[in-house]
Amino acid sequence: MAMMEKSCRDYVGVLAAKVSVPGGGGAAALSGAIGMALSTMVGNFTVGKKKYADVEDEVKTLIEKGGELQDAFLALSERDAEVFGPLSAAYGLPQNTEEEKAAKAITLEKEAKNACSVPMDIMRNAKVALEVHKRMGEIGSVMLVSDVGCGAAILRAAMEAAKLNVIINLGIIQDQEYNAATRKEMNELMEAGNALAEEIQTKIVLPKLGE
What we know:
By secondary structure, the protein is mostly helical. The chain has a single domain (22-208), classed as Formiminotetrahydrofolate cyclodeaminase monomer, up-and-down helical bundle (Four Helix Bundle (Hemerythrin (Met), subunit A)), CATH 1.20.120. It has helices at residues 8-16, 24-46, 56-91, 98-139, 145-170, 176-208.
């Protein structure tokens, strides 16, 4: 059964078990989907309310974008499990001769880059998801603004978790140009994500909650 087809209880059970997948990357992606869903919920409660008629079309656009991001996160959770197998297998390749050592190094590099691409995509999507949250917090139902704050907090955590998975994969990769470019983008995404989450909480959510 695909990971995302399991019940919440079964998924958590597998996550806690002594098995290789799912792991932190898959959990980060699933967290991203959950965080994004909270903003979409706010949008769905906003649509149809007379008070928000002027922004209804924009809210619907945010809902649509949210749905796309939820699907992307769920797909990335599955993808994270898929890329681990080939990377794990690469470690077990023989290295008895110089030719085998060279072949193993090439395979490890390739599979590590594949594995690294997944948490990077989680971070990229989380940044966009936070942008959606920011706008939903500005124009969505004020009665549910705390849910926007919750979603932003979860997405921020998903980004932090994904970042750790990027870093561990970069430790395997020998391509220094790739490493430098990936690390630069990773840090920029994290900085932007932190700034967005902080803005959502301090300038949108807490003031509307009276704090």
